[in-house]
Amino acid sequence: MAELVFEEKRVLITGGLGFIGSNLAARLVDLKAHVTIVDSLIPEYGGNLFNIAGIEGRVKVNISDVRDQHSMRYLVQGQDYLFNLAGQTSHLDSMHDPYADLDINCRSQLSILEVCRKYNPRVKIVFASTRQIYGKPEYLPVDEAHLLRPVDVNGINKMAGEWYHILYNNVYGIRACALRLTNTIGPRMRVKDARQTFLGIWVRLLIEGKPFEVWGGEQLRDFTYVDDAVGAFLMAAASDESNGQIFNLGGDCVISLKDLADLLIQVSDGGEYISHSYPADRKRIDIGDYYADFSRIRSALGWEPKVTLREGLGRTITYYRQHHDQYWD
Ligand SMILES: NC(=O)c1ccc[n+]([C@@H]2O[C@H](COP(=O)([O-])OP(=O)(O)OC[C@H]3O[C@@H](n4cnc5c(N)ncnc54)[C@H](O)[C@@H]3O)[C@@H](O)[C@H]2O)c1
Fold first, then answer.
1. Which stretches does DSSP call E strand in 26-74?
2. pTM of the model
3. Is the CB of 17 under 6 A from ligand 1?
4. Closest ligand 1 atom, residue 197 Cα
5. Which atom, in ligand 1's list, is nearest to the CA of 158?
6. Counting atoms of ligand 1 from 1, which one is nearest the CA of 129?
7. Does residue 69 surpass a pLDDT of 60?
8. Mind listing the pLDDT tens digit for each residue in 264-292?
């Protein structure tokens, strides 16, 4: 991959103190890019200053909110790449506070694109979209031609955020593309609670020596290890093949939640879980089985997952055993 393209380039990462954004920042610093992070550090979201431990002297951090158009107007200027990852990620929170989700995941996306149009139309943008926008799959694996029929407010706003990017690419020629991420796992994810991913709270309870809960258990899922997700962001940014395109990411295997729980316990050399029926508020917005067909990004950009689920879980457990004091103590 033409990773050299990032050398000495100016890069802005929204949501760069979060899980995926901070892993991306670390990789870009290694590639000698000049990285600026913008993040609001709202406590319920995934941002954590410890996520950039080790690179804090080599990135600029701007604690501000993407809803603030004045900050964004200043921050986008002169950037070569914009990795747009800031987002409200909790599906349940989007039902309890739909307007915050609307402002961040939809309205702010439009205003970020507007400041790019006015002040930096040469920037290349990669947007972090989500498999959530497909809703309950009609067929598996889900490819990009699948109908979009979100089952929660978050899915609707992310869908609009994604399509604003494609629209600005098509109408104004601002090079933009979207990656529809599936469940992403790895070091620096939010493990305090289940807001970002159910796997977060599983990892926390397991390390604390407490049983974690598996709801349902038969649902099928795929998982991308965060380094692979970061690789996809870089490939999408580096190539003009991606302009105006939407790509699914996926995982090396498909697994039921029960089997995932067993694998996690195996990888951690111990632990236990309790099976539960789905809580009613979650069931209403559950998407059932999901796994992605990621052949489109494989043929267009050559991306495919390299880290197996077992390996990814192992690295995740090792990280949180070492650093839990920074994530939930
Ligand atoms: N992790 C996954 O499994 C997954 C799956 C699908 C899509 N995504 C998407 O990828 C992106 C990154 O997700 P993540 O898992 O790293 O989540 P994360 O919560 O760790 O990161 C998001 C970051 O955005 C910041 N943020 C939120 N609202 C902001 C605002 N208004 N202004 C500035 N910063 C703000 C948060 O503080 C956080 O640091 C999100 O847009 C998410 O929708 C993630």
1. 34-39, 59-63
2. 0.97
3. yes
4. 3
5. 43
6. 7
7. yes
8. 999 999 999 999 988 888 888 889 999 99
Q: Is the distance from the beta carbon of residue 22 to the nearest atom of ligand 1 less than 6 Å?
A: no
Which residue type occupies 42?
A: I
1 pLDDT exceeds 80?
no
Over its C-alpha atoms, the chain yields an Rg (Å, rounded) of: 19
What separation in Å is there between the alpha carbon of 115 and the centre of ligand 1? 20
The string of DSSP letters for 236-302 reads HHH-GGGTT-EEE---S--EEHHHHHHHHHHHTT---EEEEPPPHHHHTT---S--B--HHHHHHH-
Q: Does ligand 1 lie within 6 Å of residue 199's CB atom?
A: no
User: Across the chain, how many H-helices and E-strands are there?
Assistant: 12, 13
Distance 88 CA to ligand 1 centre (A): 6
Angle between helices 69-76 and 108-119 (to 10 degrees): 40
Q: What is the number of the ligand 1 atom nearest to the C-alpha of 154?
A: 43
β strands within 92-147, DSSP E: 124-130
Mean pLDDT of 42-52: 96
In angstroms, the CA 204 to CA 314 distance is 14
